[in-house]
Amino acid sequence: MDQSSGRSFMQVLCEKYSPENFPYRRGPGMGVHVPATPQGSPMKDRLNLPSVLVLNSCGITCAGDENEIAAFCAHVSELDLSDNKLEDWHEVSKIVSNVPHLEFLNLSSNPLSLSVLERRCAGSFAGVRKLVLNNSKASWETVHTILQELPDLEELFLCLNDYETVSCSPVCCQSLKLLHITDNNLQDWTEIRKLGIMFPSLDTLILANNNLTTIEESEDSLARLFPNLRSINLHKSAGLHCWEDIDKLNSFPKLEEVKLLGIPLLQSYTTEERRKLLIASRLPSIVKLNGSIVADGEREDSERFFIRYYMEFPEEEVPFRYHELVTKYGKLEPLAVVDLRPQSSVKVEVHFQDKVEEMSIRLDQTVAELKKHLKTVVQLSTSNMLLFYLDQEAPFGPEEMKYSSRALHSYGIRDGDKIYVEPRMK
Questions:
Q1: List of residues 6+ apart from 232 with CB closer than 8 A
Q2: What range(s) does the Ubiquitin-like domain occupy (predicted)?
């Protein structure tokens, strides 16, 4: 497809779903049948398009014949027009107004900031429930117009739009459940609180890759701003530097899920410490952290870990949560440090003729390598050397070490065991 010049929605639609590119298969939404005479009446022999149309990166600049759109797209429910050249909201309106059952619309990466969205045009979006305006540089005035005309909007995507501030809408959008506003430059919490005012029914707020700084808000105010928030994503919020900001999240009365990877506050902790400290102290009520479910057993384990983590801290540095957990579990004993790494060397007695010599041997070497090591001790060549291993607790006597390539650790050799060297009988 030539994308250097403008093309209409209908032109691209007919080309993409022509019999050559999209063979017809019977069944609803399975294929497309293009009339033999394109200039004939579309109402007479209309396209059987899929209900989900993907027309991204096709160089679309305008709608084309609205009667044809209405005839061909009556059953379409999802439309992806991302990464095209639509810069006039009037042309978008011509398309959408002729797709009566449209619920999902993706207009990402179209230069729509070049025109003003009038309310009469926005009215054509009324049935849309999910709207994607990522990288469209849509102004807040445009967003407000859309919100006023979309009474059933449930999900809104406003990523990569270079927002540094949020402009409050004159009316609240009670229907919106999910707001995806990542990769902007929203730093001040006073801007985020405006989202709570505009979207009081918000269930999911995705704020990843912003430069959010400290959460400056009282607990009561946070509860009123986001009374229904169940999930928040603060991945890579570069300005979060203190635990008090994380504590503030507990003020959201219905919060169950939090995502907090890549923030400066947590970088100095190990993965285990990071997760357990968040679960035990800062987010005691969540059921999912960074995409993983928090099981009851993990919560108790984390709370006990928290007590032990802070038990040696000075009193003035111990968080209040520590005292709450000590009341719950009592003062715990430090865990014993157990080194579970395999032993790398042992001390054994090497017996040869009437001589006994205590030696330290590496367990990662083979029997053949041990023989080379013993050559200077017993004055025998490796080919003329027989080795026998005696486990001090073994009931069956010495075991010949006959396999040259066998590693010593496979014998289970321990400190104090014995190795006997004998010359090979000729």
A1: 204, 205, 206, 207, 249, 252, 255, 257, 258, 259
A2: 350-422
Contact 385, 342 (CB under 8 A): no
Which structure tokens are listed for 371?
């023989």
Of the candidates 7, 115, 130, which has an alpha carbon nearest to the alpha carbon of residue 57?
7
Are the C-beta atoms of 102 and 127 separated by less than 8 Å?
Answer: yes
User: How far apart are alpha carbons 40 and 293 in whole angstroms?
Assistant: 58
DSSP for 118-187 reads: -HHHHGGGTT-SEEE-TTS---HHHHHHHHHH-TT--EEE-TTS--SS-PPPSS--TT--EEE--SS---
What does the pLDDT profile of the chain (426 residues) look like in tens digits? 344 468 999 999 988 877 656 554 444 444 444 344 343 333 334 455 789 999 999 999 999 999 999 988 999 999 999 999 999 999 999 999 999 999 999 999 999 998 999 999 999 999 999 999 999 999 999 999 999 999 999 999 999 999 999 999 888 999 999 999 999 999 999 999 999 999 999 999 999 999 888 888 888 898 899 999 999 999 988 778 888 888 889 899 999 999 998 888 888 888 888 899 999 877 888 999 999 999 888 999 999 999 988 888 898 888 888 898 999 998 887 765 555 566 788 999 999 988 889 989 988 899 999 999 888 888 888 889 999 998 877 667 788 898 899 888 888 888 888 999 999 876
The answer to whether 244 touches 220, Cβ cutoff 8 Å, is no
Placement of tokens 């902007």 in the chain: 184
CA distances from 417 to 379, 384, 393 (A): 22, 23, 9
Long-range Cβ contacts of 33-36 (<8 Å, 24+ apart): none
Distance CA 149, CA 334 (A): 61
Contacts of 287 (CB under 8 A, 6+ apart): 256, 257, 293, 294
Answer left, alpha or beta for residue 97, where phi above 0 means left and psi between -120 and 50 means alpha: alpha
Angle at the Cα of 273 (from 268 to 279), degrees rounded to 5? 120
Domains and CATH numbers, the chain: 7-18+49-328 (3.80.10.10), 345-423 (3.10.20.90)
